[in-house]
Amino acid sequence: MLKTLTRPTNLIFPLSYKVGLVKLIKKSSSRYNNFFKTFILSLVLIFVFFSLPSTFDFFSQTDSENTKVQLFKDKKNNLKEIRKTKLVNISNSINRLPKQIKNIENVKERKKLFIQIVLPLIIEENIKIRLDRKKLFSILNKNNNSIIEKKWLDNKFKEYEVKDNSLSVLKIRMDEIPVSLAIAQAATETGWGTSRFAQEGNALFGQWTWSGDGIRPVAADSNSTHKVRKFKVLRASVRAYQKNLNTHSSYFDFRKKRAIQRDNNNKLNSLELVKYLDKYAETGIEYTKNLKKIIQQNSLTELDNVNILTRSNKIRSLI
Asked: Does domain 69-318 fall into CATH 1.10.530.10?
């Protein structure tokens, strides 16, 4: 029987070498275990860190808010340029106020940023009303109206809470709010965008609610049940504000004066209309005086005839 010849192992790996190899393996294994433990621990810490909502919000909001602020530094969005061209790009509107607006120490800069944020929102909602108003008068000038036009009228009667389908009431209610007046009220109600209600609830105009989703004022009386109404986006706050002035009984005189201005020269004068908003706040006449001061000090009437920037000739002709 043939024997298989093998070389002695000791000839390839001497005993001293094998002892050293074992020590090396043990040492390497220890290092690997330590590395593995450290790696796992790091992953756990990272997971816990980013699982915290505040951590994620910090990074996402910081980037988002920097983008927002940078957006309004561009020439086309600059307030000085808007005053000059009388045009604003409504596609650059944003849904929330940047939190860092509170940290802008320069009052002039903070005001400028706030105006640049709310201006396109107000103008966009005004233009929607303007187009509806044009359609309304077009329908009224016809002897016969189509089924679609009649249905449109029914929807507008509901939207503007018009009883008995009164066309004369609808004409008075379906109208714009002067840009300068809306900005002044938003500035007053939010402290130029710094209030808790504006930051947390997108509430630009301090509207109260007794049944809807809202934020309870810290200084509210214990017996008080009202809250400041919350909105998902800033635009919704503007829309609700316009509906409030256009439908609530407290602002009947405001709407009446606006209709008179329309009949006289078709131009709205915010400095006159502001006198009829004394019921908007508990301070009454002092509130209207403050609004008038804000309009004048910040030259807000210069923004009343600003229009949207558009390349469409059709849209330009309509507005």
From this structure: yes
